[in-house]
Amino acid sequence: MLSTLLLIFKALGLTFKQLTIHLSLVLTPRLHRLTYRSVPHPKNIVIIGASFAGYHAARRLASTVPTGYRVVIIERNSHFQLTWVLPRFSVVGGHEHKAFIPYKGYLAPVAEGAYTWVNGSVGSVIVSDGDAPKGQGKVVLGESGEEIEFEYLVVATGAVASGLPSRVGVMTKVEGMKVLVGEQERIRAARDVVVLGGGAAGVEMAGDVKERYPEKNVTLVHSRERLLNRGYGEGLSRRALEGLEGLGVTVLLGERVVDGDHNLTGEVRLKSGGVVKCDCLVKCVGQRPNSGLVAKVSPLSVTESGHIRVRPSLQLADEACSRIYAAGDVIEVNTVQNARGALQQAEVVARNIVRAIKGKRLVVYRPNWWESATKLTLGLKKSVMYMSDGSAELIVSTKSKEELDSARVWKYFGLKPFNDTSKEKTI
Ligand SMILES: Cc1cc2nc3c(=O)[nH]c(=O)nc-3n(C[C@H](O)[C@H](O)[C@H](O)COP(=O)(O)OP(=O)(O)OC[C@H]3O[C@@H](n4cnc5c(N)ncnc54)[C@H](O)[C@@H]3O)c2cc1C
To answer: I need a surface site. Which of 22, 123, 283, 403 has the fewest CB within 10 A?
Structure first.
């Protein structure tokens, strides 16, 4: 009881902290514009990937870099792809465009010349040797072979998955909307849906499918004994189980699907020997860190799980790559990996690069207790807000809109929801 009260007070304190973070986000670029001057041939701070980690690092760096430096953002997708809404938009139609947020709105307030944007894919990273400062180097674009030199590099390449509902898996908005509509049709046509994986994406997906189509059989198969076992408390696991069973989802815990082609047999076989009818398998497992670029340049810095091994300053563990930093889903951290954590890591990376330029001592990243806070949908109408500081859990029932928080994220990135003035708009 006391620990819950303490958590409530901490959560209230957090509102104040969020306010100061917001104020700093608004004021910093304005102040920076007063002093920053664009110069010919500036030194580059290259960022690979502009999702939560990279895009935020870009905003922070472009609002704080000294004259003589500029930020170069290299992102392969045409739009910011909002993962949070993918399970919902894989089931419910009419909102697909809201998952694709035009880029650059978030960078609108920064000084002229403080950044440049490259729509492309980095194929390799080369670290200079010889007399060049340790870790300095260049990135090579995959398609054109163009080389871009860097003084500092931020790797924010995130994670990859086999497709929906964890990642869109294609690079343009037009293609992405088609992929979402295709998934909606696949689910609509199915009778027996099996969802693999009881993390947040699996729970949300199973709840949405069952509530949208109560006549379908929906089974969630999870290999562990409780849902949401990675990084979340038992209270949330119980609430998720009750929510799904209340909707009529069959939840199989401590079970695995073994190989077998459900497209041919119309069923999946379980490790325990059981069989579940299945004409639509939705995989919410197998997300992998996208660390291939770093694995080639510094095998030392990649763990067995494929995550990038970083120092507390978020520089690569490898001393030879001290000018390379990493943040987001691609790094190894001892906490839940989500957008909140990615933003915090991006803050530290941006601060440290500016501090390194100025010859100051680097700061360290320590995961904050509130980074694991999350909102989880349990079907189309209900959701819960969850927070835990390790001693207590706070779970508050909330209602959610069909489009979820997509409008809020558009506004956060400096745009009017859902006004996309870029050329590529509709299917
Ligand atoms: C279904 C789902 C729901 C979620 N819901 C929430 C939630 O409610 N709250 C929350 O906080 N978190 C949530 N998360 C987690 C959150 O989405 C991730 O933690 C977050 O996206 C990580 O951001 P990131 O920047 O590290 O990487 P990613 O989002 O994986 O993005 C990596 C970026 O790098 C780019 N890239 C990769 N390689 C290259 C290259 N070679 N060249 C150029 N660009 C490249 C990619 O195109 C991409 O834009 C959810 C995740 C999923 C899957």
So the answer is: 22
Q: Which tens digits make up the pLDDT trace of 59-83?
A: 999 999 999 999 999 999 999 999 9
Q: Residue 167 CA: which ligand 1 atom is closest?
A: 53
**Ligand 1 environment, Cβ below 6 A:** 48-54, 74-77, 83-84, 86-87, 121-122, 156-159, 165-166, 200-201, 290, 328-330, 337-340, 342, 374-375
Q: Other CB atoms closer than 10 Å to residue 230's CB: what's the count?
A: 10
How many angstroms separate the alpha carbon of residue 12 from the centre of ligand 1? 28
CB-CB neighbours of 61 under 10 Å: 26
**What whole-number distance in Å separates Cα of residue 135 and Cα of residue 126?**
9
Regions of the chain with pLDDT less than 50: none
Tokens 């969850």 correspond to what residue?
386
Report CA(158)–ligand 1 centroid distance (Å).
5
Site to probe by mutation for ligand 1, drawn from 84, 205, 387, 406 as the one with most ligand atoms within 8 Å of Cβ, is 84
Which residues, 6 or more positions from 118, have their beta carbon under 8 angstroms from its beta carbon?
A: 72, 73, 74, 75, 141, 148
Structure tokens, 78: 């045409």
Domains for the chain: give ranges and CATH numbers. 36-76+120-161+287-367 (3.50.50.60)
Q: Are strands 69-75 and 115-119 parallel, antiparallel or unpaired?
A: parallel
Ligand 1 atom closest to residue 346's alpha carbon, by position in its atom list = 25
Say what the pLDDT of residue 424 is.
Answer: 65
Gap between the Cα atoms of 278 and 193, Å rounded: 6
The per-residue pLDDT for 128 is 85
Which ligand 1 atom is nearest residue 120's CA? 43
pLDDT at 132: 61
d(CA 374, CA 387): 7
Please report, in angstroms and rounded to a whole number, the separation of the first and last CA atoms in the chain.
53
Which of 60, 338, 365, 385 gets mutated to test ligand 1 (max ligand atoms within 8 A of its CB)? 338
The three-state secondary structure class of 79 is strand
- Judged by DSSP in three states, 288 sits in strand
